[in-house]
Amino acid sequence: MDVILVVNAGSSSLKFEVFSVEGGLSKLLKGQMEGVGTAPRLRIKGTGSEMLADHQHSPSEVPDLPAAMRLVGDWLRERHQDRLVAVGHRVVHGGPDYDRAVLIDKTVLADLESYVPLAPLHQPNNLAPIRAIRQRRPDLPQVACFDTSFHRGHSAVADHYAIPERFYAEGVRRYGFHGLSYEYVANRLRELAPEIAGGRIVVAHLGSGASMCALLGGHSVESTFGFTALDGLPMGTRCGQIDPGVILYLLDQKGMKPDGVRDLLYKESGLMGLSGVSNDVRALLESLQSSAAFALEHFVHRIGLHAGMLAAALGGIDAFVFTAGIGENSPEMRKRIVAKLEWLGAKLDPERNAKGDLLISTPDSRLRVYVVPTDEELMIARHTLATTRT
Ligand code: ADP
């Protein structure tokens, strides 16, 4: 059987899925190597969630992502008699130029390396498995699928900052991220709700990273994310939109170093920073501490504000869509957020919301509200198949 491997590499974890390409794409297994370099553990599950592997490894066996990639490759080769025909990678940054997935060659790899300064925390992790596979299997087609591509059609007005133009020219732009998720949801809406899919839609991807995207005719026209995945909504541990004056204050008045500011904004802020309890919405909903309730209130408040901003970008709004961990799984958070959208015409159907139906607004709701589970890996598999077959 011909299969495609999808790879999503983070700072200390390597997630992957395998898809059969026979008669359309279907998922065969998913796995992840966690704790790379510290306490590596490889877990792989089949489609029915049955455990296919659960191995602990020593840090010396899996010191880094290339080693993790080799180990996963070995497992797949030993276990599967399948023929690996291509590998698709999630790559956070496609810079100003890549507006679609691309087959990786030497030139493309050099371009992607040149974007490391735009995403220093993520891009090197995404590129490490690509290099490891190229070394072992130079013949194997590899495709880079970008979190930024889906937003490349934004107008110049939307993707500029009001700073001197020379910075825009060197790449300081409002790129937007989570693009693979939004593209998947936009496609899925065409299948599930064709009557609305061409309209003015705001999609809220609410997971440990969180953002919102304005879709017009199925295309992204605005995003809450900007130059980096720090902007917009507060997230599990990231701050979201912040006055740049706060950064200047931290540097000038508090004497913080850039590294310290970076850690503060990426790892110690958001729901975690505000609550002092957890970055996980489930834990915050259960907590009796007032700071946990406050953090959630702030999160919902900011989602409401950004919904208004994106509705303005669209000149009105026909539908609001929830996706990702919080959006797909938390009726309580959906209820609180929809309450902020009542002025836009949203009326929640409590029973449909509790069940997590596709449509969770009432029949007379002027704003339709949907829940559409995302699947970024399937989107990567589709791009990989399409790119290697053309
Ligand atoms: P990512 O892919 O960015 O890691 P996910 O989309 O998987 O994130 O979302 C993870 C987050 O979703 C968790 O941090 C948690 O806060 C939230 N989440 C998952 N399930 C639930 C639930 N039942 N209720 C509330 N929040 C949930």
Spatially, the strands of the biggest sheet line up as: 5-4-3-2-1-6-8-7
**Helix vs. strand class:** alpha/beta
Total count of helical runs of at least 4 residues: 15
What's the β-strand tally? 13
Enumerate the distinct ligands.
adenosine-5'-diphosphate
Element-level helix/strand string: EEEEEHEEHHEHHHEEEHHHHHEHHHEH
Helix content: 25-40%
Low confidence ranges: none
Q: End-to-end span in angstroms? A: 20 Å
Strand content: 15-25%
Radius of gyration: 21 Å
- Name the average pLDDT: 96
Major sheet characteristics: 8 strands, mixed
The geometry reads as globular
Report on this structure.
The chain is α/β, with parallel strands linked by helices. The protein contains 15 helices and 13 strands. The chain has an 8-stranded mixed beta sheet with strand order 5-4-3-2-1-6-8-7, sandwiched between helices. It has a 5-stranded mixed beta sheet with strand order 11-10-9-12-13, sandwiched between helices. Strand 9 and strand 10 form a beta hairpin. Helix 1 crosses helix 3 (about 125-135) and helix 5 (about 180-190) packs across helix 15 (about 375-390). The longest helix is centred in the last third of the chain and has 25 residues, at about 290-315. The protein is globular and about 55 Å long. The structure holds adenosine-5'-diphosphate. Adenosine-5'-diphosphate binds near residues 236, 281 and 329. Adenosine-5'-diphosphate binds next to helix 10 and helix 12.
